[in-house]
UniProtKB/TrEMBL annotation:
GO MF: alcohol dehydrogenase (NAD+) activity; metal ion binding
Record domain Fe-containing alcohol dehydrogenase-like C-terminal: where: 440-626
Matches recorded under Pfam families: ADH_Fe_C, DUF7907, Fe-ADH
Highest taxon of source: Eukaryota
Record's signal peptide: 1-20
Record's protein name: Alcohol dehydrogenase iron-type/glycerol dehydrogenase GldA domain-containing protein
Keywords: Oxidoreductase, Signal
Residues covered by the Alcohol dehydrogenase iron-type/glycerol dehydrogenase GldA domain: 285-427
GO cellular component: mitochondrion
DUF7907 domain segment(s): 35-168
Naturally occurring in which organism (per UniProt): Cladophialophora chaetospira
Length: 642
């Protein structure tokens, strides 16, 4: 219905005003568009080879990317189309029945960048980004002489971009003549400007698809990802862009929200084949976990385990030269990338290796996952991952691995096949861990279990209910461990509790945990603070903050109280505060209380920490009201940590 109305308006108004554009130096005539219209793409160069999706006849809509955020995306489904109209030189977008919009189509001009992100964000202020007009080639943006670009990108749907004008106007570093410009853009499918008759009910976004479409270089795609997906270069280095795109699509299709009312969710078990626990399980059962009679295993561990304990020697002797291919014992805290590269090279060179054994805390375990992943990329084979954890970080419970870039920020990989298939919780190994480290990683485990309670995709059973009991175990066993760090049953009990905090997230839970983990990443590797300690700093405060964000969160945090010896009062926020206080109390009881001042972090880092923890929100930026509130709450929390 709406389309027909617009058609009538459009035909009338096309015959309307034709004036000289004040914006265009080349004197093209502008056209007054219909009062309302849909923006539809047109491939102007006819038949073309395109290894991506067809870019003809797609409609512009806002693809939701987060609270108040949306990217301009393209769909062949006309019911998805957003309605456009021009207000002055601003391109506004809305939809039928919209009571709060419209919102601007915004081009994020970045000098020296080849193409720009285009957004339709509820968070944008209405007066943002003027400079749009129509001529007979369709919608134009003054900042561009390069035109529009349609490209399959990280959302798994075609997205709209804008080719930066600096290439054309000579004020940038690069000066291409017309021919070179075309050559320069051979890699990209784009919306292109060309003479055409402006006659349809739709305002055109002319798409020029190259005759021979070739995939942009990984380097170009990575740079674009950094600027357009709001990812810092640190978070994209090391990412294989091909796999990344595939992963984004898959993650979307397998993710499902869970809820208590109605009771719904999805649990996808991970690839664990066996979990052994108790004294001497390594000695008694490690060899039986090797896949074949002739298997060769490579050991990944940290230097203090290798040099200050007899443990690695024990394993090497157990494997004998028949099964032991080598040991890499140079993995440091937060797994720096240079060491990963070194270890990966060694494993790649020896094609008899079919197994990787990680021994230690989160860093060796994550490193083994990252090496497994990289070896598969290079050699097309998956190593069997066996792990012998010596801390309570529970890194053995996920299929993802964080590691640290040279600039100190963490990045990561994820794949179901990097998940350790055999876990050995042996207190003979745990007994060598310095008690202070063992205790603080216990808080990391507690952090997992608490944040599981308000994570949007964790299941009620097994994940959350098991995690609630794990919280109870941790509160009971951590003080017991502090009193006697040599008691084997306590050590084994804590290993199992740590396992229970994270193991039942399942493979479908993607992305980060909650705010306490986000803050942990923001504080951990950049300032050299171990993750157990970051959890000691943040978790109690985050529990209280979360409870103030929604009544669901309050209920979920309050539900922890009976598991840690408290009684429900009927007031969820008050109960959540009691949970937060009990966590902070346990930190103090175990002698782990600290501050950012003690850790040598300057107060000038406040904004940086908040921006990292919130995914880029800063006080200087225009934020939506909801984002403003998040930022304010997080700042309030972080300020307390000094
Ligand atoms: C429409 O405007 C663009 C951008 O200024 C220009 O490149 C193009 O040639 C114009 N089209 C016509 C038919 O004038
Ligand atoms: C793309 O889709 C249009 C119809 O929307 C069709 O006419 C055209 O042939 C398709 N192009 C290619 C390259 O498949
Ligand atoms: C088109 O989009 C509408 C609204 O989002 C949706 O209900 C419908 O299923 C879609 N149709 C197709 C064929 O995908
Ligand atoms: C058009 O822009 C003016 C000035 O920025 C603004 O006051 C007005 O509300 C806008 N109209 C619509 C319909 O968005
Ligand atoms: C585009 O137009 C707007 C509004 O007239 C102006 O502020 C802006 O500087 C222009 N940008 C370029 C690159 O010409
Ligand atoms: C990235 O992954 C793809 C597909 O798995 C593979 O073909 C390609 O060689 C990898 N690229 C790099 C640079 O490792």
């Amino acid at each position: 219905m709406f389309f027909i109305t617009v058609l009538a308006t459009a035909l009338l108004s096309i015959a309307g005003l034709v004036i000289a554009s004040p914006l265009d130096t080349r004197q093209t005539a502008t056209i007054t568009p219909p009062a309302q219209y849909y923006l539809r793409t047109k491939v102007v160069n006819g038949a073309h080879k395109d290894t991506g999706s067809n870019k003809t006849n797609l409609y512009v809509y806002s693809y939701h990317t987060g609270a108040g955020l949306g990217d301009a995306a393209l769909s062949s489904n006309s019911s998805r189309a957003w309605i456009g109209y021009l207000n002055g030189t601003q391109q506004l977008m809305t939809y039928a029945g919209n009571k709060v919009g419209p919102w601007p189509l915004s081009v994020f001009d970045v000098p020296y960048q080849e193409w720009n992100q285009v957004t339709i964000s509820v968070a944008s202020t209405p007066d943002y980004n003027p400079g749009f007009f129509f001529n007979s080639s369709g919608l134009q943006y003054n900042g561009s002489t390069g035109g529009w670009l349609a490209c399959d990108w990280w959302h798994g749907v075609p997205q709209l971009f804008q080719v930066n004008g600096y290439l054309n106007n000579g004020f940038g570093l690069l000066k291409y003549n017309a021919k070179d410009r075309i050559a320069f853009r051979v890699e990209i499918i784009k919306l292109f400007v060309e003479d055409d008759i402006f006659l349809s009910i739709f305002c055109l976004l002319q798409v020029f698809a190259q005759r021979h479409w070739t995939r942009p270089s990984d380097d170009l795609m990575l740079r674009a990802l950094q600027t357009k997906a709001h990812l810092s270069s640190a978070r994209t280095t090391g990412i294989n862009i091909t796999n990344f795109a595939i992963r984004q699509t898959r993650a979307k299709s397998s993710k499902m929200d869970s809820s208590l009312h109605p009771l719904t969710g999805l649990y996808k078990p991970n690839n664990l084949k066996a979990l052994y626990y108790g004294p001497n399980v390594v000695k008694d059962h490690l060899l039986s976990a090797l896949p074949t009679e002739t298997s060769k295993a490579f050991i990944i561990t940290g230097s203090s385990l290798a040099t200050k304990t007899p443990l690695i020697k024990t394993i090497e002797e157990l494997l004998t030269s028949k099964h032991h291919a080598g040991t890499f014992s140079n993995i440091k805290q937060h797994a720096p990338v240079a060491q990963l590269d070194e270890a990966t090279e060694i494993v790649k060179k020896d094609d008899t290796i079919d197994t990787i054994i990680s021994v230690g805390g989160g860093s060796p375990i994550d490193s083994a996952k990252a090496i497994t992943y990289r070896v598969n990329e290079a050699a097309g084979k998956w190593l069997l991952h066996i792990t012998i954890p010596t801390t309570l970080s529970a890194a053995e419970c996920t299929a993802g691995a964080g590691f640290t870039q040279s600039d100190g920020v963490k990045t990561g990989i994820a794949h179901p096949n990097v998940y350790p298939q055999y876990i050995f919780y042996d207190p003979k190994f745990g007994a060598y861990t310095p008690p202070h480290l063992f205790l603080s990683t216990g808080f990391r485990a507690l952090d997992h279990a608490v944040e599981a309670q308000y994570h949007p995709t964790t299941t009620w059973i097994p994940c959350r209910l098991v995690a609630l009991n794990a919280i109870s175990e941790l509160f009971k066993l951590l003080p017991k461990y502090k009193a006697n760090p040599k008691d084997e049953d306590t050590i084994t009990g804590l290993f199992l509790a740590a396992y229970a905090t994270l193991a039942y997230f399942g493979l479908n839970v993607k992305g980060g945990l909650g705010l306490s983990h986000q803050l942990g990443y923001a504080l951990g590797s950049p300032y050299g603070i171990p993750h157990g300690i970051t959890s000691c700093l943040t978790l109690g405060h985050v529990a209280k903050l979360k409870a103030r964000q929604s009544s669901d969160n309050a209920e979920n945090v309050a539900a922890i109280l009976p598991y840690i010896g408290g009684k429900r009062s009927g007031d969820d926020v008050a109960d959540a505060d009691a949970v937060g206080d009990k966590i902070l109390g346990l930190v103090e009881e175990l002698g782990l209380k600290t501050t950012l001042t003690e850790k040598g972090v300057g107060k000038d880092q406040l904004d940086v920490i908040c921006a990292r923890a919130t995914g880029g929100l800063t006080p200087q930026k225009e934020n939506s009201q909801q984002e403003e509130e998040t930022l304010k709450a997080v700042r309030g929390l972080v300020e307390k940590l000094w």
